[in-house]
Amino acid sequence: MAQFVVRQLEDDVAEKLRQRARRHARSMEDEVRHILRTAVQQPPEGRKKLGSRIAQRFRRAGLTGDLPELRGVPARAADLDS
Fold this sequence. Notes:
- The structure is a single chain.
- By secondary structure, the protein is an all-alpha fold.
- It has helices at 11-23, 28-40, 50-60.
- It has a domain at 7-63.
- α1 crosses α2.
- The chain is elongated.
């Protein structure tokens, strides 16, 4: 098994790592192993992006037209009384 020594790690990063490990009920060493394992995992082959998956789901529900882009449009409450 490989071993790593991390030098010159900023104090705030070490403290956040300590807090994260505590939240997950792990030692700092185990938390670092978990972070590294997760970081190097490859995404599944052929996995579509989120927008494509959402569009496909709605297409199967009968929606065939494009949805308008709502970025930058203020949200408004639904009228549930009608």
